[in-house]
Design a protein that fits this description.
There is one protein chain. The chain is of the alpha/beta class and 233 residues long. The protein has a single domain (7-229), classed as Rossmann fold. Helices cover 34% and strands 26% of the residues. It has helices spanning 49-56, 79-89, 105-115, 120-133, 149-161, 179-196, 207-210; strands at residues 7-17, 22-29, 32-33, 38-42, 64-69, 72-73, 90-93, 167-171, 200-203, 215-220, 223-229. The protein has a six-stranded mixed sheet with strand order 7-8-9-4-10-11. Strands 1, 2, 3, 5 and 6 form a five-stranded antiparallel sheet that branches. The chain starts with 6 loop residues before the first strand and ends with a strand.
């Protein structure tokens, strides 16, 4: 593992402001994530874990502080530059899958590559390859509403990793899955981490996933309460 962090947060703060009040979600978070890690952030509801994930992914801007992605300060980027950074460096897996209903499984998987400007023949080849590796190539021509929730979440993972991003951010990826499907998905992501060196960062409260990560960051009231590096199965 490189000593240089893949992502570093610097006194990261986020406060949500309404007409009535200000609600601090993060109160000065300093963490470093390294290439090849399989890390989760956990904590009680309202602890700031989803906020942290959204800030790391450039989906929202911090109120104070900064995020360095491979040395690039995200606060210094324009909206277009930030969108390009997300496209090339960050993969997302959402709790609600967020697949495009009018596109097939293959087209959903290849969509990121299309946005990246990869030629059609190459993006179809790469999309089919990752679908095969994840055991869902047989559903390539199906639409999302024709496959199960577990299969849809596998497609979401395929879409997240096909572009070989620097890091995959996953927000409660097992929340809508039963135990069997959750364990299959966790095994799948763990295999991508060990075989391909894919870097994962999860926001989750699922003990089944927390038991498998190599590092667990715990947030309480928007602050890092614990940062536990361990050997996971």
């Amino acid at each position: 593992m490189s000593n240089n962090p893949l992502i570093q947060t610097v006194d990261l703060k986020k406060t949500y402001v309404t007409e009535a009040l200000e609600t601090p979600a993060l109160r000065g978070v300093n963490v470093e994530l390294h290439k090849g890690e399989f890390t989760a952030v956990a904590g009680p509801s309202g602890s700031g874990k989803s906020t942290l994930l959204h800030l790391l992914g450039g989906l929202d801007r911090p109120s104070e502080g900064d995020i360095l992605l491979e040395g690039t300060a995200m606060s210094q980027l324009s909206k277009d530059q930030l969108a390009k950074l997300r496209l090339t460096n960050i993969g997302f897996v959402f709790q609600a899958y967020n697949l495009i209903p009018v596109l097939t499984v293959l087209e959903n998987t290849a969509f990121v590559l299309e946005l990246q400007g990869v030629v059609k023949s190459e993006r179809i080849k790469r999309a089919r390859k990752i679908l095969n590796e994840l055991g869902i190539e047989e559903y390539a021509d199906q639409y999302p509403n024709r496959i199960s929730g577990g299969q849809q979440q596998r497609v979401a993972v395929a879409r997240a990793v096909v572009g070989e991003p620097s890091i995959v951010l996953a927000d409660e990826p097992t929340a809508n899955l039963d135990t069997a499907m959750s364990m299959e998905l966790i095994d799948l992501m763990k295999r991508l981490n060990s075989d391909k060196g894919a870097t994962f960062f999860f926001a989750t409260h699922d003990s089944r996933l927390l038991d498998r990560v190599n590092r667990l960051i715990t947030l309480v009231d928007g602050e890092v309460a614990d940062d536990d590096v361990r050997t996971a199965s």
